[in-house]
Sequence to fold (641 residues):
Amino acid sequence: MSHAMKRLCAALALSSVCLLCVLRSADESAKPSAKAIYNSQNATTPLTTPKAALEGVTLPKGFRIQLSAAEPDVQQPIGMAFDARGRLWVAECYTYAERQKNFDTTLKDRVVVLEDADGDGVYERRKVFWDQAHHLTSVLPGFGGVWVLCAPDLLFIPDRNGDDVPDGKPVVMLNGFDNDKIRHNIVNGLKWGPDGWLYGRHGIITTSFVGKPEASKEERTALNCGIWRYHPVLKKFEVVARGTTNSWGHDWDDHGQLFFINTVIGHLWHVVPGARYKRMYGEHFEPHLYELIEQTADHFHWDTGRKWNEARNQEGSTDTAGGGHAHCGMMIYLGDNWPAEYRGNMFTVNLHGLRLNRDTLARHGAGYVGRHAPDFMKIKDPWFRGIELDYGPDGGVYLLDWSDIGECHENDGVHRTSGRIYKIAHGAATKSPTADLSKLSNDKLVALQAHANDWQVRQARRLLQERAAEGADMTAARAQLRQMFDTEPNIPRKLRALWALHCVGGADEPWLQGLLRHPNEHVRVWAIKLLQDSAAPSASTMTAFTQLAGKENSGLVLLFLASTLQQIPPAQRWPLAEAIVQHKEFADDAVLPLMVWYGIEPAVAQDRVRAVQFVPRCQFPKVRQFVTRRLTAESGAAGGK
Fold:
């Protein structure tokens, strides 16, 4: 470490002590009592000081890391999200390891709000928003309140006037998420998607049956490992994709493509609605899938020649590969502080490897591939348990540290009185206070859709959506967004205009159908997605989809057309499926044939004659094989009767 870096670390350590004093004096009454918050873990290794932790960090040249907050003012940080004022909302989970059989009712999780008023990267103001949670994993401001995941519930805590005091008791929006057997695979990960939906994740250990509080068993959706979403206005819940093991991180790239991170098996996955991914163990609900989609990455971050539970250190081939199999938190960097070479790259915390892994994303076949890039950060602190990361208002990246020496299972007890937040930025330290975007006019929020930092873009889009949902006149905003879409040559910015138009009700079906003829594949993909975003595609849209599939040359567009098959009645799926499987250039693609099969499998069982007619017309050998296999299974079942 250079002398300059050592001086910086010493200064940061001194400033962190001052920070803690300020935070404690600002909100002393909100601290948990000694009786309520306790440690059950034997601290065999002394807790690393912030100064020592910072001294053990290595980053690429030009980057710097600083302490933004630390215990006792941040403890057990398990999730975070920014609001429109640039403040950081943190979910502190003290009941993570508690189960129903021996639940400690004295423990309560809490949501705290941290504010960096002068923009120096250090949080000097702190409030406790809510301190009555159990199994709290996620917090997300929006739509006049705060959304939190507290299994078994998705809760909405109203705060219409934004004074950081709940207007009333939390409202249960969804329930049925398992909060006992699921353990460290518990429901988590609230994030706003570019389509205006609220996205979350769920692990593999058990099955949840999710629905509105009043829903019957038959009305509920079974959920076992995968990605789900919920619409804040339509109040609709659905599973997006199923499979893998324990996903604890997801994000969208510049073109609105969703990726998520996973542990133990393959780490990186591209989300296609309706996908069925490889599982660590167990079976999907459907009995005739025959083959599952493999990970998007072309590599592993651990030595696969060893047992996965032995690859938990920074030695030898596992260290070279990336440090281990356990990943937590994920960010696709779209900020404006880090150098351009990092934009669009995927970053995730490698829990056992004590580092941040970095993958690059590229189009490959009908979908994407993730390729290994040099690890971005390493840290020597044995207590480091990075759990989430995201870029903020100035493009700097904030990193949550759970701070523990045990496994994620917490079988050896829990050290609840520790936690840190770091900020990683590039270049010289500057002060840049954040404006309150909620005070901006609609036209200024529209203008922010062209901002270089996607943090600004996402916050502005959500605010526009909220105003539209409240019944505000969005006529001028829609016109401005439409003009931006029509005149903007940059495709990511054009897509931002499209997403915002959709969120404010400015993207109707005829216009979206016209976009199916757009020369850019990403625009066509999003026209497909938005045409069936909240309901099954109409008859005219299905006709347009089938016509597009017949002449389409983009595998990505065909992939999302294939995903729509599951949104329509089985008997109506054949024309679109037949148009897709004529593209023999994608016959051996790793994903497209499987998505076609997942779409038509129910139709094969319903109409054997149509299925037999389909086989000789199909240019995808794998799909022909699966159709024949399914028909044979039906014949066997009939014969058995």
